[in-house]
Request: fold
Amino acid sequence: MMAAIRRGQSQRSVARTFRLSLSTVQYWVRRVGRQSLTEVDWANRSKAAHRIANKTTAELERRICVLRGQLQQTSVLGFVGAQAIQEALFEGNSQGNLPSIRTIGRILRRNGLLDRKQRVRWPAPPPGWYLPDAAQGAVELDAFDVIEDLGMENFGLIQVFTTRSLWSALAGAWPAQVASTTFILQALQVHWRAHGLPGYAQFDNDVRFQGGHNHPDVVGRVMRLCLALGVTPVFAPPLEMGFQAAIENFNGLWQQKVWSRFYHENVPALAAASQRFIQAYEHRLARHQEQVPQRKPFPKEWTPNFQDPPRGQIIYLRRTNAAGAVSILGHAYVVDPLWQHRLTRCEVDLDQKEIRFFRLRRKEPQQQPLIKVIAYELPLRRFDTRPRHRHPVTEIR
Reply:
């Protein structure tokens, strides 16, 4: 284009030849000027202004940085932030044409002079971190929960007893009109007879799992069943997030994919739909698992005897109060006055007749030092197996 103009063609004819506007040709003529075509910078230029009208000068920016250092060393108050720097600038400038607080803050950040540190994002602890052998994958943990108050048309409210394993693909959901303790005991035996016994069984603090709270030293039927089978019951801390995350996530998935997705005429129809979902769900998860902890076989021809003295361990996960004490089995134990509002694992050893307390930290899940050991002996008394509430028991097949 410029070569044609320099050969004598008019700008208008060149614009028609190259299908450009006349103003574009004129722009390049002005830009090239008298330069040789080999010396011209043909790259596109930014349309931004060469000088921003309200840009802080380099001299003022250096003055702000120096002033911050001076305030840090000589200021009586010790304030070195953007507001203090602006006040110091106004003291020596009566005109008031100085940068705003936000501009001074951006200058300090650009020069790395801010004291504020970025928030530290701690990595999440591994699954089952509060039980060292379960966190390492050496022992399996089955978590249990109850979904309550699901309204079924022409039937009323129902409940669903659910389970989800920590490492393996095992899951389960058993709907019933009332998920009573008797129903839970039946579901536990059916599930464990089919798949084997885990090392731990985790529950929340519902009386159906833990037993009545009206008397101290109560070991309920669910706990006695677990102890008789060599399974350690674990009770999650009340009002704590994360410990029941696996089973709560499964509860939400079950309600979304089974309960809300189809219409169920009655409880048996719901149980059949739930069983189909559980089989497909376990099959899908099993494809992505390579190695899972070994489960112990369920003893043959075994029947529970709740009058036998409980043996083994019961684990309570608790958070200490302002005095550094926890409440388990109806008793308050002072763990450590300096360990206030912190997580603690309480191991009730019925064989050794003692309670061991361990510190728990999510930031340091590998460090679980022993705090204290307290002597404890479970009183031996006849266990009352009479049901407190009489509800129709749904048979699990």
Notes: The first helix runs from residue 2 to 6. The first strand starts at residue 141 and ends at 152. The radius of gyration is 37 Å.
